[in-house]
Amino acid sequence: GPMLVVDALTKTYDDGTTAVRDLSLSIDRAEIAALVGPSGCGKSTTLRMINRLVEPTSGTISLAGRDVMKVDPVELRRGIGYVIQQVGLFPHQRILANVMTVPSLLGTPKAKARARAEELLDLVGLDPATYAGRYPHQLSGGQQQRVGVARALAADPPVLLMDEPFGAVDPLERRRLQDEFRKLQQRLGTTVVLVTHDLDEAVRLGDKVAVMAPGGRLAQWGTPAEVLAH
Ligand code: ADP
Ligand code: ADP
After folding, report:
1. Cα(136)–Cα(99) distance, rounded to whole angstroms?
2. So what's the ipTM on this one?
3. Distance CA 225, CA 191 (A)
4. Ligand that lies nearest to the alpha carbon of residue 16, given by its number in the listed order
5. pTM metric for this prediction
6. In this predicted model, what pLDDT tens digit does every residue of 41-78 receive, in sequence order?
7. Which ligand sits nearest to residue 213's alpha carbon?
8. Of the residues 17, 162, 196, which should be mutated to test ligand 1's pocket, given the most ligand atoms within 8 Å of the CB?
9. DSSP H helices in 51-160
10. Are 80 and 58 in contact (CB under 8 A)?
């Protein structure tokens, strides 16, 4: 069955703004679903409802067949990774320690966590020999973003939510990082919900594309080819 099912999801904030209106999506395991649309159409709110940072007004979300509202919050944190554009690395920790945060908290043996962190840094295009020992402020915005992706993957979440993850990466490098991310995601079998305002990115990375419209409505939902045909 599908990994993530969003059914008739609606969010109206306290001030009366309806950010998401009657949204339904079904995302299979190891798929990337790209939510694309202009600023303010409810993409971030949708992600925040999936990981319970925002409470839905109505509708349901199920993760591997379970209602997320009934999943223990700690378990949910482990099951759902979250990457945002402002990655929020720990400024006083070196890059390697930043990537190892979650495995360390979970008690993964240090040598194993370290080897994996180095492998992930390499996979996101940061040579560990050069970057592992640096501090976040010694990296560019785009490089910090790569660290954020490596950190999220280090936790090995079955589902990864990404809000404009490549927004801070310069356009020349963005495509390379997108392609590397795609390969890595397929290898790990991670189910991804990716938010972007860039249709190119949505079509390039999404197995399914959800085009959202102002007012939080779903305008289109289908494969990239189906969406592009409209
Ligand atoms: P997007 O991610 O597509 O830019 P958002 O989900 O951030 O869209 O926002 C959708 C709409 O909801 C916007 O009109 C935004 O101003 C509004 N909104 C977002 N967060 C809040 C909030 N906490 N309170 C009230 N309105 C909000
Ligand atoms: P993003 O587009 O990445 O969601 P925003 O700048 O829209 O970033 O939102 C940043 C923060 O401000 C979020 O926590 C969001 O919920 C909140 N926010 C956004 N719009 C509003 C709003 N109209 N009223 C209150 N909070 C808002």
Report:
1. 11
2. 0.74
3. 20
4. 1
5. 0.86
6. 999 999 999 999 999 999 999 999 999 999 988 888 88
7. 1
8. 17
9. 73-79, 95-99, 101-105, 110-123, 128-131, 141-154
10. no
